[in-house]
Amino acid sequence: MKNISFYLLLFTILSLVSCKKDVLNLGTEDTTSETEKEDLDEQGLPKIEFQAELPTATNSLEYTIDIDQWDIPNDGTDAVKTTANLQAAIDWAHEEEYGRVILPEGTFLVGEDVNEIYQGGIEIHDNTEFVFSEGAILEIDSNNKWNYCVMSLDGDNIIIRDGIIQGDRDTHVFTPRESDGNTSHDEGHGICVWNDSNVVLVDNMIIRNTTGDGSLVLEATDVTFTNNNIYNNRRQGISIVGGIRVTITDNEIHHINGTSPQFGIDIEGAGRVDEDILIQNNYFHHNTGGDIVNTSGKNVYILDNILEQGEGNDYIDGPLVSWHKTHNVIARNTITMDTGSVNGRLGYIQYSGGGDKGHNRATYVHDNVCNNCGMYMYKSSDADVRRNKFYGYFMAFSDFKNVTLIDNLVTYSEEHTNLRYCWSYRFKDATGVATDNYLGDELQDLPLTTTEPYTMQCVLDGW
Fold first, then answer.
1. Using 50, 70 and 90 to split pLDDT, how confident is the model at 9?
2. For residue range 274-289, what is the model confidence (pLDDT) as tens digits?
3. Radius of gyration of the CA atoms of the chain, in A
4. Which of 23, 193, 288, 373 could form a disulfide with 347 if both were Cys (CB 3.0 to 4.6 A apart)?
């Protein structure tokens, strides 16, 4: 194992924090002038002009790890021996240029004591398709370390598929950190895609029970997650901390809980580049912080997902959150809230502290269905909002320039009748255009203009 791994975790990932509305871009007024002209598809959305490259098989040579030959326990015991001998078998297969390496049935308990804060797992090399046989589990041994990777991907052109990766959250020892006594231990990951790894596919995996994230993407390019079940991880389902051309499709990400931010997917580069990200056809539910948060990503497409609060779950931030400087296309999602969050029943909220957002692209919010929820954007500019249905809550814009509202529907809440005052469409110092928007069956006259900021009288009386 490479000793540099823990330094990357320690010094580059601890910056992940829960969404804070009061730390964003405080400063001068937004200086963006004219919205960038987009190449739009038939539905009026910017066309997707990127695609994550997928790994390719380098050869047809296949090796099934011989646990007897390598003396590898497969009964969930002796982590030190299992780690050393399993890694030796993987290293040998790589040296012999096997393109496909198969882990046989059994529970493989791994864990290498690298230093006082990092517990090492198994490392997969470049040009490898690593396949789990049915019933194969790779599990990290109980430990007291702040950081670990059950499986670390270090190289290009790697496929991981068809298995179970399991953390130690139920037996982990949360030893206080000497420097400050902190016990969050939120850097225990199932799969780490890092060290400038490129062209990676994670397919049909179960990733569960880690002390941190199901998977961490750190400064990687062309990474695809598909058909995975990611759940019961303490911090995130997937963290993108520097990722270019990342595709996340057809996954179920749920029951993320334990330590902030607790989102299904968190795009939070902390100064790194997050760009060209597709999140599509995923099912999110029972995630404590929320389902998707984008704090730093540009050109992020959030399409055709199901986001559900889930029975008995309390959101903190809410299903879908973006920050002021990001760029998002949000379309055809179905969002369902039960009791709301600290933001009320807002299915989509854009946080902002004002100032220059750093680009002149619009946020597109099209054809979404929000059950028992609404949306709110503030201290920003340029939004194209069309054909959405917000059942039982409001749509609001505050200190916002250049919003386009066309053919949206808002309905009254049958359960919260006291909210009908100043209901449906709320504006404070907003400019833009609005046509064919309805409150129930009633066409609404929303007197937005492109020149004079508009504020509703009832907002003046009390938002």
1. very low
2. 999 999 999 999 999 9
3. 24
4. 373
Residue type, 188: G
pLDDT at 335 over 80: yes
Residue type, 28: T
pLDDT tens for 193-221 read 997 899 999 999 999 999 999 999 999 99
Contacts of 177 (CB under 8 A, 6+ apart): 117, 146, 183
Structure tokens at 313: 């779950």
Strand 290-294 vs strand 263-267: parallel, antiparallel, or unpaired?
parallel
- The secondary structure element, H or E, covering residue 10 is helix 4-12
* Cβ within 8 Å of residue 318, ≥6 positions away: 290, 337, 340, 341, 342, 343, 346, 347, 348, 349
pLDDT at 346: 96
Q: Which helix (H) or strand (E) holds 80?
A: helix 79-95
Confidence of residue 111 (pLDDT cuts 50, 70, 90): very high
pTM above 0.85, yes or no: yes
Round to whole Å and give the CA distance between 168 and 1: 20
Please return the burial class of 18, using the count of CB atoms within 10 Å of its CB with bins 0-12, 13-18 and 19+.
middle
122-124 and 62-64 strand pairing: unpaired
Q: How far apart are CA 210 and CA 232, in angstroms?
A: 7
- DSSP secondary structure code for residue 21 in this structure: G
Amino acid at 183: T
Ramachandran bin of 53, using left for φ above 0, alpha for ψ from -120 to 50, beta for the remaining angles: beta
* Of residues 385 and 9, more confidently modeled: 385
Whole-angstrom Cα distance, residue 449 to residue 430?
8
